[in-house]
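lol ok so funny story. i was supposed to be doing the assay writeup but got distracted and ended up predicting the structure for this chain instead. priorities right. anyway since i did it might as well share w the group, maybe its usefull for someone
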Amino acid sequence: LYRIKNTTEFNGKQIFGTEEVTRVTEAEAVEQGYTVVKTAQELKAALQPGDASCKVMLFADINLDDLGVDETGSNWTAVGTTSSDSSDSFKGTFDGNGFTISNLKINKPESDYQGLFGCTNGAEIKNVNLDNVDIIGKTRIGGLVGYTYNTNVSDCKVSGIINGGESRIGGLIGVTEKSSIENCCSFANVTGEEFYIGGLVGRNNKSSITNSDSKANVTGKNSTGGLVGYNDASSTVEQCSSSANVIGSGIYIGGLVGYNYSNSTVKNSTTTAVVYGESSHVGGLVGYNYSNSKVEYCSSFATVTGDGDFVGGLVGRSESSSVSYSESAAMVTGNARWNGGLVGYNYKSTINNCVSTSTVKGYSRTGGLVGINYYNSTITDCYSSSVVTGTDLYTGGLVGRNSTSAKIINCESNDIVIGTGYTGGLVGYNHSSCIIENCSAHSTVTGTDDFIGGLVGVNESSSQVIKSSSTSNVSGTGVKGAFIGKYASGTLNENKYNGQNTVGLSAVGTGLDNPSDSQIYNDENLVINKNIPQIVIPETDGKSVTFNLQVGIKDDDHSTISVDTGLNFGLFNVNISTEYGARAAIDKIDKLISKIYTKQTELGAVSNRLSSAIEFQNTQIKSTSAAMSLIQDADMAEESSKYIKSKILQDTTSSLLSTANQSPEIALRLLNVKKQ
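and the output, tada:
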């Protein structure tokens, strides 16, 4: 525990450890109007509710056990114990200054608004560490504050036990309204008997939580989350994380947020939580994303188990909302319907630019990305590389069931899919006027019942598969198809199947028995029907063209590169209408591939030699240019030296002649002087 507290970081900030707040001096605090507090008795006296001018700052660690306990076993009475519109709320400023308040005890199971503060209004609380709290209350219970209104809370941390007999229970704060929470963390054990139970905040209402973290143990009934139980009314949770252990006996259970509702947003957040829901709507990040709410740029590495419907690695159920630019690498186990690596149930919603690499095991309607994409919902630009196991019908690498005018566009699956019936590499069941367009499956698909397909298990009820492809490997004991297990009705247009399939398998397992059915295909559909023809490729003549490339100055092997373009396949004649012929065809194809690989290796070696030769020639050019430059510089220096030498000699000669010409004149002047 000591190591965790002192080394844990999130977004570059130490969450609960030795990183200290930059503390002000006592003189500075007094100058700023703060009351200086160093003891438990001074703290109790200084925190006055209803006084907006109240400003308190700690200058020592405080142990509330120093106050003793009353007849209820409590050593503290929450400051400001009634609702936000009352004059009894705390309205001032409390700065913990990085010091710790320990051993807060409140035992009032029939009382609301419990915590260090019961209720705040227009307050500011910052830099407070609460250690080993022990609080029992009824509703709106938090280690720091029971209920905040128009309050800013920052850089606060809590550890200990918080128990609420009813609802709105949080490790740090029970309810936030029109408030902001920033850089806060919870290590608390939080328990609530009813709804809105969160490791950090029970209900986040018209408020924001940023850069905060939960490592709490959380147990609740409905709307229970590792960080927030209920995030509603245009609230935001951003740049937050949760590694909480979450247990919910009711609905809407999430590793980070239990219920994200009404234009609220969860953004840039992550979870490694362990989540268990006894009922429905269970998600690694969010249990229920509803009513124009958003989950974006989030990730889940959670372990998620749900005994009821709607279980997802990231979101349990998304309704009339969106999930975008998010990923899930969760471990998902759903013991009922609608289980997905990213989202369990997508209803009237959109999912775009998401990835799942989850391990998913579900009972029915199970998918690597989404369990069911339902009722005008759309999934675009998504990818799944998951391990998916469905123990009942409708299992798909990407989506278990695509139903009722839903669309899947520009998506890809590369999964291991194990199902019973209605199982597909991309979609298990494409049903009721749905569209799959420009998608591909490269999955390994196994089914123990009928209608197993490389791309789709069953396509029916006017649904369409357009411009999609499969290279999946399909196996099973029942009716199966390398492209579609069963075509019942609908449209297939411009699709391709190029992968290997089980011996004797047709691209469509069943549903093409009537000649009129072939009209659903146009010329660009590559579909192998049940009458499989013999395939013959004529033998090549083996003639080749050899190029000799001169790359050096000598006439030897080192200066010449030879390129042989010949590739002789031999006679390629296979019949894949029988099991024996198909196996023989595979052997022949393997040999052809080996020849191609050998030729690729030879040409690669030639390419490498050419690259080396070109590099060598470029080096020679650079060296020659450099040598020429040096020679030119030497020639210039020699000529310059000769010129300077000539100039010096000319100047010296001129000077001597000038001196010699002046000597007779000087002598005559001296003689004239003597005569005078």
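The helical segments are 2-7, 26-31, 40-46, 579-675. The first helix runs from residue 2 to 7.
back to the writeup now i swear
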